[in-house]
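W.,

You were right to be curious about this one. When I first looked at the sequence I had no strong expectations either way, so I just let the prediction run and decided to look at it fresh. Below is the sequence, 108 residues in total, followed by the output.
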Amino acid sequence: MPWGAPYATTDGVHIEQFGFANWNAARWKKGAAGTLDRTAWLVAFLSGKLAIPIQRLSDAQVKSGGKGVTTHAQCTRVFRVAGSHTDPGTGYPFSYVLGLAKKWAKAA
């Protein structure tokens, strides 16, 4: 069992990606374009299978167990767990990936 998203580990689905937390959005799109597209497809697929909305969760939604998409870093921050989970980093193109996921979901 992974321990990448404290307090969401047993309630969530984890998607591991290639990349670095210090990358900016342009670097993510250039260096991991295929990863971002596959991640978007997987988010869309899991959304349909598990009724998970394709939306980024706010901190309050994470804390209350809302359904949607979050990150290791957000769970670490929200649940105040000691550790160094900063992934996928502040430069991660979250809106871009969720936009792609919505396109994949419509195509299904």
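Here's what jumped out at me. The chain has a mean pLDDT of 90. And, maybe more interesting for your project: The chain has one domain: 25-107.

Coffee later to discuss?

I.
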